[in-house]
C-alpha cells in the first residue's frame, strides 16, 4: 500500500517530533510512506469558528495532494475527523468524498488496517492516557464510560504492547481537557479550568507522562503543567510506540 502522511499544521510548527515518530513507526512496520511537501492547514480552525465557507482553498489543495494515495494517515484525531466529515469540492464532489474516506487516524490505522498485534517498543515510565473528544466520540477510537457497552480503546491496546510501560487508570478517563480548538480562545477561562481538572487527575496518579492521539489536547495540558511548575511531560502516542522500536 502507498500511504500519504498528513501532518497537521500545528504539529509541523510546534511538535515535529510527533510527525517524525509517525513516519518512522509506519516505515518500520513496512509501510510505503510519502509526505506531500505542499500540504497546509486542513481548514479545521476556520470551520470551528463558523467560517467553513472559506475553506474551499484548503479542500482543493488537500484533494490535490492526497487523492492518489491508497490511505492517508495523520497523528491527529481532530484533523482526521474534520477532513472525513467536511472535505468537499463542488467541482469534483465524488473525488472529494473518495479522498475523505481514505483518511485514517494513526492508532486506528494500526489496529484496523495493519492489524498490529505486537510492538517491540520500550518505554519504562508511568503514563496517563488522555482520550481526546474528537477521537473518542467522532472516530470511535475508544468506548465512552456513560454507555453500557463493551469497554475498548484502540490507543490503549497499542500502549499495552509497549514493554515496561506503567499505564495508569484515571478516575475520569474520558473527561474533556477543555482545549476544543478555538473554544480555548473564545472561552479561555472555562477552557483553562477544564484543563486544570484534567491535569490534576493525571498528577493524582503520579503520572510521569501524559499521552494521547492529539497534540492539540496535549499542547493545552502542557501549558498548564508548565505554569504549575510541574515536571510531568506530554508526549504523542506515536513517540511512545516508536521508542526503541
TrEMBL record:
* InterPro entries referenced in this protein's UniProt entry, alphabetically: Cys_rich_dom
- Cellular component aspect of the GO annotation: cytosol
Q: Which residues cross the membrane?
A: none
* Highest taxon of the lineage: Bacteria
Provide any one GO MF term from the record.
oxidoreductase activity
Q: Name one Pfam family in it.
A: CCG
| Cysteine-rich domain segment(s) | 3-83, 127-221
Q: What name appears for this protein in its UniProt entry?
A: (Fe-S)-binding protein
Starting at the broadest rank, the lineage of the source organism is: Bacteria, Pseudomonadati, Bacteroidota, Sphingobacteriia, Sphingobacteriales
